[in-house]
């Protein structure tokens, strides 16, 4: 869904630094100049239009080529939602896999890598299958596990193997109790259980959270597992706890910032507002000020 509220509006700009390739490249350059790594997300999801899926692939190809041109590819990666590249279409699994392959190829040519975002629970199995298929040709392709799903500790065990990059997040979708923990405390406990599995395993854990307790536990579990700096990383979203992002870098940790860009910011912004309802009033003010 594209909306007409300009991305320059206060609350949107806090989470989405721009709409164009040039704007996101400028943001990535500025973050990397401060020692942060980056993951660029071309906003959009749930497309039912083959041309739109094609446009998304081209946008990734363009941003990856621009990253290489500006020397930003090695410390950058891209994050891709499979429903943005065709998963919801008829024959969606084949279309999404083929489109994701093209993005992985562009990333390899640029000297960069791809992580496949995780969406709502109806897509978990197919997303993990597609990541596995991509990893046959592009072994650096990252997976995402959402701690709130009951199944996730098992998924972490399966993925905690040498060469595997796994981002652990709490989970951002409104899921039913039949498949997910809905109590915040239960989600936090599940996050720690999953993190322990990943830190003790052979892969590269990517600890995606703004929660100070999870960051502290992540550091402690990495030490307990005898992990060297760089054998795991922290990740946060653009615009959330920027000072903490830099503090972790100054302490020698690897920190990657997820940078979304593009016109289709509505679904992304709504998930951020749901996590932080006090920001809703800022959003309403942006609409009124328009
Ligand atoms: P919370 O308990 O929600 O928040 C902890 C603290 O962080 C809060 O007290 C507050 O201080 C701060 N904070 C959190 N959210 C906000 C906000 N919106 N605005 C301001 N402050 C805030 N989810 C998916 O389902 N699939 C994905 O592929 C995915 N990829 C992600 C990639 C990255 C790099 C990150 C950081 C998150 C990703 N998420 C993804 C979102 C994630 O699942 C959570 O919804 C989100 O990170 C909030 O959870 P939290 O761990 O920060 O903890």
From TrEMBL:
Q: Which residues form the Proline dehydrogenase domain?
A: 25-280
Q: Sorted alphabetically, which keywords does the UniProt record give? A: FAD, Flavoprotein, Nucleotide-binding, Oxidoreductase, Proline metabolism
The record ties this protein, via InterPro entries, to: FAD-linked_oxidoreductase-like, PRODH_bac_arc, Proline_DH_dom, Proline_oxidase
- Entry protein name: proline dehydrogenase
Q: Which cofactor does it need?
A: FAD
E.C. numbers: 1.5.5.2
Which reactions are catalysed by this chain?
Answer: L-proline + a quinone = (S)-1-pyrroline-5-carboxylate + a quinol + H(+)
Its pathway?
Amino-acid degradation; L-proline degradation into L-glutamate; L-glutamate from L-proline: step 1/2
Organism field: Nocardioides dubius
> What residue ranges carry the coiled-coil annotation?
none
**Pfam families membership:** Pro_dh (PF01619)
Which SUPFAM superfamilies does the record associate with it? Answer: FAD-linked oxidoreductase (SSF51730)
